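Q: what sequence does this backbone want?
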């Protein structure tokens, strides 16, 4: 491979990496858009409670609609918070307080009741949790925690994530929710800033690489010029030698005696030798310069090779981190969506069976409410690693969000997949969990659906999700196949 083609290969590789960063930036933009929609939805639901508050909410919605920057959003959020504080300080009669409580219930119903909830939520999260805290507060907490999990944050932001999560768990008032939303917005901004910095670093490197490659091209052009000059000098020397030899022959014909002949021959020989000496000296200078230029070029190419390898390693680590769930260490939803595209494309080409399994931990909210989120995190990590360690190399499993996992099985009919799924379900059931010196049995349910003609990715997922709901309704800790 020539140096020019190798340089072009480097450029292609790094433009590919730049495209990968753009994909990640798109993911962050989607998370930012989700957060903005959440805030906007909250403001709509709070309308009609106070004239001053309504004005502040309109300003906040306009800022969100106009894609305002973080400084403008901060000002709008502060204005809304101040209006809420003033509203909270107003004296209220008992009837007014009762009306406010009804309005609060209506507020949350408008927030979360208008959206069709996951069917399994009614089956899997009843009873005891509702007696421990208001359902509205629990709903807000669950949505904010799920929003936090969807961000797929890098490792260096995990401490901030845990701090926000701890704040969500204890928050129970408007001021606390405002602070939580603000911190989540700060996290989204930190992600965007980090991605922009990485992208700018790649662009700067590519610009520097382009400049260095142009310098290498100039040196290569100089090397080509060296050979051209050497060829021209050789022709000039050849012409001078021929003239010298011709002069010797002419002198021999014109000489009248032997001494004159000797002098003429010697003169022409001296001229030829002078040309040859000049040619040798010039060639030596040209050679020394070319050798020095080649040494500089080789050193710079080695520097580029070291820098590109370092950047390549960093980008591989960044790509792996962006596609890994920070809590469980298995692939995340972004990795699943990319793998899904690959597997569906392979299915369209070869028509080999492709089955989607959706796993959901039974009564997971009870674990969190009874033993705390650290215990819930332990359950998620243990089950995730157990599933990931028990599947084939050709299969794929990822954390989809919350307590849900998605599992792709390739090249296996649905009946055989059901057998495998039931073994995995039994393995989860037999896994021993101990919380506060108490043995706790944790189970999981699974819905399976085989991809078929006419399916979109969404309809295929919905069929598997419906089968999961049927497994929940049938008593949990079971696997069901979609019709």
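A:
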């Amino acid at each position: 491979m020539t140096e020019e083609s190798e340089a072009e290969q480097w450029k292609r590789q790094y433009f590919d990496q730049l495209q990968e960063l753009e994909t990640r930036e798109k993911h962050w933009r989607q998370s930012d858009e989700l957060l903005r929609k959440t805030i906007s939805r909250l403001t709509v639901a709070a309308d009609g409670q106070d004239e001053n508050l309504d004005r502040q909410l309109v300003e906040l919605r306009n800022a969100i609609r106009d894609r305002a920057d973080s400084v403008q959003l901060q000002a709008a959020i502060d204005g809304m918070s101040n209006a809420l504080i003033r509203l909270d300080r107003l004296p209220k009669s008992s009837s007014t307080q009762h009306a406010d409580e009804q309005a609060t219930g209506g507020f949350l119903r408008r927030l979360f009741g208008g959206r069709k909830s996951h069917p399994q939520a009614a089956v899997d999260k009843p009873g005891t949790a509702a007696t421990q805290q208001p359902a509205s507060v629990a709903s807000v907490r669950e949505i904010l925690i799920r929003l936090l999990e969807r961000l797929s944050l890098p490792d260096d932001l995990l401490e901030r994530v845990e701090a926000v999560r701890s704040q969500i768990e204890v928050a129970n008032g408007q001021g606390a929710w405002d602070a939580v939303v603000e911190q989540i917005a700060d996290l989204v901004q930190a992600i965007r800033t980090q991605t922009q910095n990485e992208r700018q670093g790649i662009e700067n490197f590519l610009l520097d690489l382009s400049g260095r490659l142009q310098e290498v091209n100039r040196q290569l052009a100089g090397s080509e010029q060296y050979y051209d000059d050497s060829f021209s000098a050789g022709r000039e020397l050849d012409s001078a030698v021929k003239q010298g030899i011709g002069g010797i022959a002419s002198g021999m014909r014109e000489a009248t005696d032997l001494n004159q002949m000797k002098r003429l021959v010697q003169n022409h020989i001296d001229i030829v030798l002078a040309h040859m000496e000049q040619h040798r000296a010039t060639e030596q200078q040209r050679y020394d310069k070319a050798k020095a230029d080649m040494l500089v070029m080789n050193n710079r190419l080695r520097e580029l090779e070291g820098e590109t390898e370092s950047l390549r390693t960093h980008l591989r680590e960044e790509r792996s981190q962006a596609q890994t769930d920070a809590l469980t260490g298995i692939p995340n939803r972004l990795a699943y969506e990319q793998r899904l595209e690959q597997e569906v494309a392979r299915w369209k080409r070869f028509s080999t069976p492709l089955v989607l399994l959706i796993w959901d931990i039974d009564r997971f909210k009870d674990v969190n409410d009874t033993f705390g989120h650290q215990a819930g995190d332990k359950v998620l990590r243990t089950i995730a690693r157990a599933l990931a360690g028990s599947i084939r190399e050709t299969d794929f499993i990822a954390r989809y969000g919350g307590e849900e996992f998605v599992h792709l099985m390739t090249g296996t009919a649905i009946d055989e997949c059901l057998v495998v799924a039931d073994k995995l379900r039994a393995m989860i059931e037999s896994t021993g969990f101990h919380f506060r010196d108490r043995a706790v049995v944790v189970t999981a349910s699974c819905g399976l659906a085989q991809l078929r003609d006419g399916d979109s990715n969404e309809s295929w997922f919905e069929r598997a999700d419906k089968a999961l709901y049927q497994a929940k309704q049938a008593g949990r800790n079971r696997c069901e196949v979609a019709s």
